[in-house]
Design goal:
By secondary structure, the protein is an alpha+beta fold. 34% of the residues lie in helices and 28% in strands. Strands 1-2-3-4-5-7-6 form a seven-stranded mixed β-sheet.
Length: 180
Amino acid sequence: MSNKYEIRYDVTEDYINQMIELDKQSYSGDNIGERSRIQSWLNSNKDIYTMLLCDGKVVGYINFMPITKECFDRYYSGKISDCEITGEDVCPFIVDKDNYCLFTSIVVSKSHRFTRSAMLLWQGFCNKINKLQNNGIHISRVIMDCVTDIGEKCAIKYLNAQYVTKSPNGKIYEGQVGNK
């Protein structure tokens, strides 16, 4: 029997639970998502997650969200981590304005890491970015906090990221998404 994969952007309570379980496979401590924090982000912007489902279960996700310029500057300086970002720091994508974004997570379940899942998830994310750009959303700057070696390698390879500074949990990089 072959697996049925699908990309989803609409987050449900069940998907939040599944994403937190995926975090536990890859991260530790403050880097594991908390329901209240995730919900506060979603209350500010429902369009921050790209999820890959296999047979109806979340097997991977990407969190990419626009944040205020002030939050971006604090994060860029390495003074805060994503567990300190509140719903007030997250904002909607804004047409014809600069959008400062934070790429917080790319997670694939251990059982799907060496399959086509990562590629499918990345394609779903790229499709979302292309759609945003086609709708007049300009992603002016993107930063990420790389807390794993594989995250750092992916940031450099796929986001053309450059090292900025150390963070409380890893290393801050600045990269780019979509068409410049």
